[in-house]
Amino acid sequence: MIVGTTIKALLASAQQELAQIDTARLDAEVLLAAVLMASRESLYAYPEKQVPPPLIADFQSLIMKRADDFPVAYLTGSKEFWSTELMVNQYTLIPRPETESLVETVLDLIVVDADKHILDLGTGSGAIGIAVAKERRLCHIISSDISIEALAVAEANANRQQLTNIEFKQSDWFSGLQGDYFDLILCNPPYIDSEYGGFIDTGIRFEPRIALDGGYLGIQAINTIIPAACKHLNTDAYMILEHGYNQADAVRRSLTANKFVDARTIQDYAGLDRVSYARYP
Ligand SMILES: C[S@@+](CC[C@H](N)C(=O)[O-])C[C@H]1O[C@@H](n2cnc3c(N)ncnc32)[C@H](O)[C@@H]1O
């Protein structure tokens, strides 16, 4: 139960209510700022400001959901990725900071004025494709997903950025991409082991299972995607995949077995193996 009527008191009370969450204070601030339609900084500028009762009730309701692990991004409807505020909902994975390592890898592979044809396979909220479309304006990006609901969010996010070099296609991996060939295929696939206990007792239970569950050992989707990708690559093309911290060897093996060359792995900001890529000669 949240007590208090001022910004300062409400934040202190919410922080206590969320005590079991590492980011309790931050979450309380983000949620109160969202309810007040104000910035987080303004909470510190006006700590003694009274909050009207209906807004206290809204805040209380969000804090109760957060206390049950419901993700902050779904409560606010947005998440920042690559300095862009993206809309998210329960049909889209919440973009993760480690996925920015994949974007960095892509940008290192293509010069600023390149006009490559790029596929963002399993686009979710559109995070990767939109970041690359913004950074490489002459490239043409197709962003695909099996989820029509996720695609609607991704397209709305791209429209908000007024991007004209990105298009969206519904496709079960490559089945809806017949006749499409790419210079780069980017993919953050589902790569968590189906038996991972967190699907039951952590916040990821609120995210779409199809976005996270990579089957047995988490590697089944990756093993489906890599051989299928070969039929959609131009010569001298790249495949770039995000994966679990312990899947780099398996991913590079699969790339090499499918005639890719120069397979490499990149670490994320936490120093964990996170992105592997290789060239299709
Ligand atoms: C890990 S999420 C990545 C989302 C987004 N690219 C990101 O990095 O935030 C995997 C995405 O793959 C999509 N997906 C799962 N199975 C698929 C399939 N058979 N065909 C196409 N997309 C699929 C999911 O809907 C989800 O959006």
Description:
- By secondary structure, the protein is of the alpha/beta class.
- It folds into 2 domains: 7-68, Orthogonal Bundle (Helicase, Ruva Protein, domain 3), CATH 1.10.8; 78-280, Rossmann fold.
- Helix content is 39%, strand content 20%.
- It has helices spanning 7-17, 24-36, 40-45, 53-67, 72-76, 100-109, 127-135, 148-160, 198-201, 209-212, 220-229, 248-257, and strands at 78-81, 84-87, 117-121, 140-145, 166-170, 182-187, 233-242, 261-267, 273-280.
- Strand 3 (117-121), helix 7 (127-135) and strand 4 form a beta-alpha-beta unit.
- Bound molecules: S-adenosylmethionine.
- S-adenosylmethionine binds at residues 93, 95, 99, 122-125, 127-128, 145-147, 150, 171-173, 188-190, 210-211.
- The site of S-adenosylmethionine (SAM) has 21 residues, from helix 7 and helix 10.
